[in-house]
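Treating backbone geometry as a discrete language has practical consequences that deserve illustration. The amino acid sequence and the backbone structure tokens for this protein are reproduced below.
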Amino acid sequence: MKTSLLLILFASPFLSAGEFSPGNIPADAQWYLHADVEKLRDTTMGKTIINAAKKEHGQTLSDAEIFLGFDLIRDVADVSLFGNGKHDNAAFIIQGKINRRHLESMIVDADQYQSNLYQGEKIHSWRDKGKGQNAAFHGDTLVVVSEQPELIMLTLDVLAKRKPHLESDKKIPGSSVMMGTANIEALDLPVDKGSKMLKKAQSLSASLTEVDNHLRANFVVSTKEEKTATRLQKIAEGLVAFGMMAEPDLEELNIEHGSSVTGNQVSMHLTIPVEEALAILGRIK
């Protein structure tokens, strides 16, 4: 049970993240996801989500705080998830008041625990439900966790400046509360029609920002050819039109959307009042 509960750390990154730090992520990461809760807490959407989480999952959050030794919403400052493109190869980087001593004591008690030194830093390993888990601390405020020990070592190398880190993505607004990028060409995707269509894109960047009580989602897709970007733009516009036709209620909402093509890049955005976005989420739930 202890090893399973340890993974609760990674079940709520969008409720427990801080300022995105590309300096923590390896330069050769092929995708990443991040949510900035320090900004999210100040938004209408963030306040509503956090209040709902406390109301509906208050006991779970309290239990998690007792078990982990810190508050997932209040104490965690930064959470990022990244991968090397291979299937199921990913790592979490978590920063904040994470109570390292308490977490390490739990990890040491986990099933089949062992540890190894890498460049003077300890890598903890254990088994959970038949799968290997690995973790390492960098100082008292950062922990990286992954099923792949090589991703742990790579992250430690980046943190120690032995290897280069990811550069900031200029396509992502600095005010974003959620963001992510993916190098589509480098991803190990299944062979099916959907993946073949996705492979026509080279890369994807996405972000979510709240401004004046409106949520704005931005997407930038890079393709190999300009004609592919134009086709993707038409597909995206068609999907939006189809969605509104299939769900008549959407036509009554104040949704503003648009797209443009510049060379081999297609940029898309969708803006909706926060109140209406929350109403949609409520219906989906």
Observations:
- The first strand starts at residue 31 and ends at 35.
- Residues 1-19 have pLDDT under 50 and may be disordered.
- DSSP finds nine helices and twelve strands in the chain.
- Residues 8 and 64 are 8 Å apart (CA to CA).
